[in-house]
Design brief:
Helix content: 10-25%
Largest sheet: 5 strands, mixed
Number of helices: 3
Amino acid sequence: MLDSSRLGADEAGEVPIDVDEVKARVRAGRYVYSQHAEIERRAEGLTFAQIEEALLDGEVLEQYPNTGRGESCLVVGFAGDLPIHIVCGWRGDKGVLVTVYIPRAPKFVDPWTRGEQTDVEGSV
């Protein structure tokens, strides 16, 4: 299991995801794709190698608190020139890739910046 004793808690007391620990699990082959991540990977036409490359080269863009399924974080990385977002967290002692996608407008202005949010009817 993740050793949270060496990680600092944020202001709300949540322990952020240590992306270096996630990367270590990926390098060791100790990670899984969620069903949702696999569906999104296929829909985006991404290969496992592209996702690993982006994750291993990536940096944390956002940390997400425990929403009932544990903490997670959004990593932005690149496979060549292709930006890829990977939401990752923990499933037991393994890393889990929760979802993967290519950041695009209107949700993202660029790989690091969110765009305008839409309401439930889809209007801005």
